[in-house]
Design brief:
mainly alpha; 201 residues; globular; 71% helix; 9 helices; 0% strand; homodimer; DNA-binding
Chain lengths: 201, 201
DNA sequence: GGCCATTAGTGCACAGAGTGCAGTTTAATT
DNA sequence: AATTAAACTGCACTCTGTGCACTAATGGCC
């Protein structure tokens, strides 16, 4: 182990992270006020106090402003899965990883983004496209835990089912807003699937 | 019943369909030759013998050129599911609908498009986003078959699982190109899921 | 402190996707 | 033949995203 992982985080790194956060917040506010399509990158840049050109040093695209915060969350999931117990069924490992990382899930921001996506089918599609990254992260984690090549298809299958369960849970959670806690929705969705599936490992 | 459904298909309608097909073929050829990103709509229009502006009377966007042919296929699936037997488990109805419509699935075009998407992650994402339409179509079909509101969540769950199985099947089929028939891949994927799932209906 | 490499940040010009609009041509209907 | 709707074109425009050349700020190092 080389120097563990704390990393002192330099001033520059911190500034960057904070500005990244700032731009995201400004953007979400503008999206909520005027709609996603009607908000141009020029406006976002102006309201954030930077040049339009410089936006692309923080986000690769307009969509990324909404979805990039999920990237590190997905990465955490992958790592958490990789640290799971190989004796358990794959789905159970994923379930535990999701539930144990739920505290780090930014529910408030997700709710705001869901509001922005409402009535914008193009954005919903992009959101869906982004979910492929969750599935890939799950698969990556599972493949680390069970590196043998012959189990790859089984793990792919498990990652598809898992991300399906998560999507189902999120859907219920967003629909019955505030009626259920996200953790319960996720637990229910996995329960439902685990109950119906005889996970033969 | 008013006039049934045969519809004589007027000359105009037919011309439109043929031109639609023609543009698609031209585009796929260009995409294969020069890549998706490097092929502009202006080139496609020129090679198709129409104006760039007029392309948008056939396709809403560049992506649509690749994905629109799936639209009517998905619609067939939905109708086929809606005609299923309500006594069977939902997953079984979907499985039968997929398998019985497989002859109408344009495998050749799908292979070409898969080739185009290879090494283009943005396009893969868009492809993934498009799959939400299959899931919606499945859910639509199932909801027609079981219109009672209280089973909606169960049907949503089934549509997520089904489209997951289809995606798994397609993945295997594309990976082991020509090694297995698509029908077998689909059957296997559903078998696998139906075997592992105790479909309690 | 002063030098230096790196990173933050700007401005400009450009390409390509997609839209609105005003207009012309073509084809089906009566 | 006249009418009407659809096919089709051209133009000007907006917005996203990129390449490039450039300046400003910052951290490390002597």
């Amino acid at each position: 182990m080389r120097q563990a992982s704390p990393k002192p985080e330099g001033l520059r790194e911190r500034n960057r992270r904070e500005k990244h956060e700032h731009i995201t917040n400004v953007s979400i506010r503008l999206f909520l006020e005027n709609g996603y399509d009607a908000t141009t990158l020029a406006e976002i840049a102006y309201s954030s106090g930077i040049s339009r050109r410089h936006l692309f040093n923080y986000f690769d695209s307009k969509d990324e402003i909404l979805f990039s915060h999920l990237r590190e969350y997905y990465e955490m999931i992958a790592e958490s899965i990789a640290r799971g117990s190989p004796g358990e069924p794959a789905m159970e490992v994923v379930r535990k990883a999701i539930l144990s990382n739920l505290a780090r899930f930014d529910a408030e921001r997700t709710l705001a983004i869901a509001k922005i996506m409402k009535n914008n089918t193009a954005l919903q599609s992009k959101n869906r496209a982004n979910e492929i990254n969750l599935e890939k992260a799950i698969l990556r984690g599972l493949s680390t835990l069970w590196p043998d090549r012959e189990s790859h298809d089984r793990l792919l299958f498990a990652s598809i089912l898992s991300s399906g369960a998560i999507r189902f849970a999120t859907h219920i959670w967003l629909r019955d807003e505030n009626e259920m806690k996200l953790a319960d929705c996720v637990a229910d969705a996995f329960d439902r699937m685990m109950f119906e599936i005889q996970c033969t490992q």
